[in-house]
Each structure stands twice: as structure tokens, then as C-alpha cells.
Design brief:
mainly alpha, about 50% helix, WH-like_DNA-bd_sf, Homeodomain-like_sf, Transposable element Tc3 transposase-like DNA-binding HTH domain-containing protein
Length: about 60
């Protein structure tokens, strides 16, 4: 048996042989973020020490949020 040589369970070998491209990958859970980490850094850079309104920041950075 293959499972004895590679020291993995039979079910792990079976799931790998059924779909080797997706073996060991997890589905992403939850809702994806609306703002990327790069956008978040840009927002912080623009807003810090400035009296800009939310609409000004949104227009300057071309954000849809």
C-alpha cells in the first residue's frame, strides 16, 4: 500500500489522487475585505494631520467605499 510507504492515511492518499491540484488547500472563509491593505495605508497617509472630509479622501484616492 502507498499509505505505508509515505506514512499517510488511506483517506489522505485517496483525496490527493482524486484531485491533486486542490489537495491541502482550504477554502477562503468569510466576506472579502472591501479595502485592500495598500488602500488602507494610503488612507492613513492622506488623513493623518489633515482636516479633509471623507468625501475629499474618497475622491482623491478614487475609492468606491
Amino acid at each position: 500500500m502507498i499509505s505505508r510507504y509515505v506514512k499517510k492515511s488511506r483517506s489522505a492518499i485517496h483525496s490527493y489522487l482524486n484531485n491533486p491540484l486542490y489537495y491541502g488547500k482550504k477554502k477562503s472563509t468569510g466576506i472579502p475585505r472591501k479595502v485592500t491593505s495598500r488602500d488602507e495605508r494610503n488612507i492613513i497617509r492622506v488623513v493623518s494631520n489633515s482636516p479633509k472630509s471623507l468625501n475629499d479622501v474618497r475622491a482623491e484616492l478614487n475609492l468606491s467605499v
